[in-house]
Amino acid sequence: MQNPEEELITILKQSGIDFTASLPCEKIKILLELVSAEFFHLPLTREEEGVGIAAGAALAGKRPAMFIQSSGIGNMINALLSLTGFYALPLAIFVSQRGIYQEKIAAQFPMGKGLPKILKGAGIRYTLISSAEDFRVIPRKLRSVYEKNQIHAFLLSPAIWEGSSARSHAMFDQRPVVCMIPETRRDAASPDCTRYELIEVVAPYLENRVVVSNLGWPSKELYALKHQPSNFYMLGSMGMATPIGLGISLSSKKDVVVIDGDGSLLMNPGVLATAAHVSPDNLIILAIDNSSYGSTGSQETLTGSCVDLELVARGFGIGNTKRAATQEQLKSAMTEKKSGMKFIHALALPGNRDVPNIPIDHRAIRDHVMRFLKK
Question: Which of 4, 53, 224, 227 could form a disulfide with 355 if both were Cys (CB 3.0 to 4.6 A apart)?
Answer without folding.
Answer: 224
